[in-house]
Amino acid sequence: MTDSQEAQGANPADAAQQQILLHNLYLKDVSFESPNAPAIFREQSAPQIQMNIGLRTENLEGTTFEVELSVTVTAKSGDKTAFLVEVKQAGIFTLNGFPKEQVPALLGIYCPTQLFPYAREAVSSLVNRGGFPPLLLEPINFEALYAQHVQQQAQAAGQKAN
Asked: Where do the domains of the chain lie?
């Protein structure tokens, strides 16, 4: 170990043993609805887009997890729904060699970051196939969302303690 590694407390053997394996990537559930078609295609106003994101993790065995990213996009023109698309993109990940306290962050940041491009493409494809102009979702900062989630949990725990 070099002097700089000793000073930082880094052990290169530990880092070499840490790995994230993606075993499977799959579309778990998908739905597209256009309840006001064909009349909605005559609307002249640009639809208002609302997006909701959800994340679910399940420990399958040991250090192997299923991570499911849910993306729901609703487009409304006035009070009418132009379309509603729901995509659940999932993957099976194995997290080897990481301390237990790092696992939630990996599941909440790294894994959905890997899944989002696939969910984004599925949403775009479904919207286009539904007869609407292409919809390209903006990138998402899962690190910021995870930090917000951790803060909300801490606040909720603090309120329960009072």
From this structure: 17-142
| Structure tokens that stand for 56 in this block | 């679910």
To the question of domain 17-142 being in CATH 3.10.420.10, the answer is yes
Q: What is the pLDDT of residues 71-115, one digit of tens each?
A: 999 999 988 999 999 999 999 999 999 999 999 999 999 999 999
pLDDT per position as a tens digit, 2-38 = 444 444 445 555 566 899 999 999 999 999 999 999 9
CB atoms within 10 A of CB 115: 24
| Confidence class for position 160, pLDDT limits 50, 70, 90 | confident
The three-state secondary structure class of 124 is: helix
In the three-class reduction of DSSP (H, G, I as helix; E, B as strand; rest coil), residue 78 is classed as coil
Question: CB-based burial of residue 160 (10 Å sphere; 0-12 exposed, 13-18 middle, 19+ buried)?
Answer: exposed
Structure tokens at 5: 């590694």
The one-letter amino acid at 9:
G
Beta strands, E only, 9-149: 19-33, 48-61, 64-77, 80-96
**Angstrom distances, CA of residue 105 to CA of 35, 69, 102, 149, 158:** 38, 15, 6, 11, 21
Q: Do 53 and 148 contact (CB within 8 A), yes or no?
A: no
